[in-house]
């Protein structure tokens, strides 16, 4: 890579590397960028103090999140009806907060490297051990702090490609660690001896396909027919009371056309009213009609409970439903409600007063299947998708990605859903309002999908599976503890040397 730049040139290069890393994710899926982008950052971090490392990490984060989650502006301005200037300010603030995680990672890495180098730890060891471990732990922090935003975790780029075999074992944090380790080995190749890094890279990437040889999960022998209804209702039209009739008529008509499927699935909040408002007049008569032809009807709808409102997926005509647990801040509930209550009216956000459902809910039974359900971006939180496993034979995600418009956001969301299927060794059914509706197989491959932005029905068959991948059995704990031990090991070994 030549002489390392300094000052603003290094910061600019870090920002460009972050922006380029977005190309590793859907819809671009250029996997080498998941190594090259972080490799540039690791190279720029070498030999720097905490302040400089924090600044360069911050620049990388600005590039990554500025290019990768700019679709937040569409949600705030186009559908939240916030003035463009204010929406821009809020989006910039959001990106600045996310970039702060890379600033924290850079500062911590430089601080640790300085002290461990003084204790005699070799720079090559620090490069290969310190940075993958810190990357994983900071990604983990980002996945839960302030309710969490695990978008663009590096490991998602590995869902399709040579490293996919590791995913059912190590999950997304393990995949991130392997990509950062690959980036560190690439940086290590810049100086001799080079044989070790070459052998390590080759072993890491060539061994992954062998990990698909074990059959982590097996088909139960039951195949079910499914019809997923993509209503394509404009977000600005959805919650107007005058439009309720034609929206329900569209979903009713499209469902009747596919009567006989074991499962007829509507997307998140497809019902433009509280479930109880239309259950007796529309939903239950339709479900009874469909049941006569062997179909179960499962719909996404706001649910009015005794203690508040819920975002729910319900089997019509049965006491079976899932209520969303991980709500979107400001979109589905208001943090610090007592102080910020006026924001709902200001931002014109409908249905912004939901309550969370229970953190652990049993599989939803419908269409002859035991389904592990997630609603909208809950599928970005692997631990929550894992909760109903291994009992569930099929994963289901219902979503309304209309909030993001015609941007890269829905493609990134589909990629995350596919990764969950690969981790769990389960097929995943994904029903959305206007895309991307899809069936994903148990290896995380999108087997069938509908085009975006048009009313359509995806008719397909899905085979339930049983068994558990190592990730389902153990979750993310082993990888996170391994990262902690990787940081602790150099301290422990140098302390022993000093005592000796």
Q: Proportion of β residues?
A: 15-25%
In the CATH hierarchy, what is the class of the largest domain? Answer: Alpha Beta
What percent of the residues sit in helical stretches (DSSP H or I)?
A: 40-55%
Quickly count the domains. 2
- Summed up, the helix count is 17
Topology pattern, helix = H, strand = E:
HHHHHHHHEHHEHEEEHHEEHEHEEEEHH
Which blocks of ≥5 consecutive residues have pLDDT under 50?
none
**Which structural class matches the secondary elements?**
alpha/beta
* Apparent shape: globular
Q: CATH homologous superfamily of the largest domain - what is it?
A: Carbon-nitrogen hydrolase
- CATH architecture descriptor text of the largest domain: 4-Layer Sandwich
Transmembrane segments: 12-45, 57-76, 82-104, 125-145, 165-186
Function: Catalyzes the phospholipid dependent N-acylation of the N-terminal cysteine of apolipoprotein, the last step in lipoprotein maturation.
Protein name: Apolipoprotein N-acyltransferase
Domain CN hydrolase: 229-464
Walk me through this protein's architecture.
The structure is a single chain. The protein is built from 17 helices and twelve strands. By secondary structure, it is α/β, with parallel strands linked by helices. It has two domains: 225 residues; 251 residues, Carbon-nitrogen hydrolase (Nitrilase/N-carbamoyl-D-aminoacid amidohydrolase), CATH 3.60.110.10. The strands form two sheets. The protein has a six-stranded mixed β-sheet. It has a six-stranded mixed β-sheet with strand order 6-7-8-9-10-11. Strand 9 and strand 10 form a beta hairpin. Helix 1 runs parallel beside helix 3, helix 3 runs antiparallel to helix 5 and helix 4 packs antiparallel against helix 5. The mean pLDDT is 93.
